Amino acid sequence: MPRVSQDHLDARRRQILDGSRSCFARFGYEGATVRRLEEATGLSRGAIFHHFKDKESLFLALAEDDAARMADVVAEQGLVQVMRNLLDAPSGVEARALGADWLGTRLEVSRRLRTDTEFRDRWAQRSELLTAATRARLQWQHRAGNLRDDVDVDVLTAYLELVLEGLVSHLAMGLPAKHLTSVLDVVEESVRRHRGR
Q1: Which residues lie below 8 Å from residue 147, measured CB to CB, with a gap of 6+?
Q2: What is the mean pLDDT of residues 8-24?
Q3: In degrees, to the nearest 5, what angle opens at C-alpha 106 toward C-alphas 115 and 23?
Q4: What is the number of other CB atoms lying within 10 angstroms of the CB of residue 181?
Q5: Helix, strand, or coil here: 146?
Q6: Taken in order 46, 52, 54, 58, is the CA torsion positive or negative?
Q7: Are 100 and 174 contacting, i.e. CB atoms less than 8 angstroms apart?
Q8: How confident is the model at residue 165 (pLDDT cuts 50, 70, 90)?
Q9: 133-142 contact pairs (CB < 8 A, 24+)
Q10: What gap in Å lies between CA 119 and CA 124, rounded to an integer?
């Protein structure tokens, strides 16, 4: 039997994550049955679970993948840009990863954190990535003299994460997004250092 290359395995894993992202976003964790995951990925259950131990491991890997993508955006542009991406949510896999499909995954993570202690324990090991990226970006901004210096970086990190959670909840409830871009302008301005005042 010929060996499968690592590139092929990585591409197959990416195919599973991208397909399952839309499935979890559309149907939630419980509604994302194996049959629906097969349809969304275009692969058999054997192919899916060759790469992931079970549905929960797949969901955790997906949530971790989304957190890593968000952390990359945070490192380059800050957490407010992640929020702007949620509002923009153009088409395409990369955009959906930080847009509508990501929102569905994020909501499902939040729901499971409230109701499933075992999941909460497993997620706690993975959730620090975004916080660490946000803190590092803010520390960099502080060293560059761009960040207000009257509030501790850890407080600003918590503040931005709370804004993100509020935005996710707002969008999840289907509330109007008309002025949210301007709201994010205010949030961004609120963490900046204002010289000459």
Answers
A1: 138, 141, 153, 156, 191, 192, 193
A2: 89
A3: 95
A4: 12
A5: coil
A6: negative
A7: no
A8: confident
A9: 133/70, 133/71, 133/72, 133/74, 133/75, 134/74, 134/78, 134/79, 134/160, 134/161, 136/75, 137/74, 137/75, 137/78, 137/79, 138/191, 141/78, 141/191
A10: 8
pTM, two decimal places: 0.78
Q: What are phi and psi of 195, to 5 degrees?
A: -80, 150
Give how far the C-alpha of residue 79 lies from the chain's centroid of Cα atoms, to the nearest Å: 11
pLDDT in tens, 117-133: 888 887 876 778 888 99
Segment 67-78 shows an average pLDDT of 89
CA distances from 63 to 17, 49, 86, 100 (A): 9, 17, 16, 14
CB 55 within 8 A of CB 20: no
The region of weakest confidence among 23-27, 64-68, 94-98, 142-146 is 94-98
91-94, Cβ contacts within 8 angstroms, sequence gap of 24 or more: 93/18
Please answer whether residues 63 and 105 qualify as being in contact, where contact means their C-beta atoms are separated by less than 8 angstroms.
yes
The arithmetic mean of pLDDT across residues 26-37, rounded, is 91
Q: How many CA atoms lie within 13 A of 197 on its CB side?
A: 7
163 in helix, strand or coil?
helix
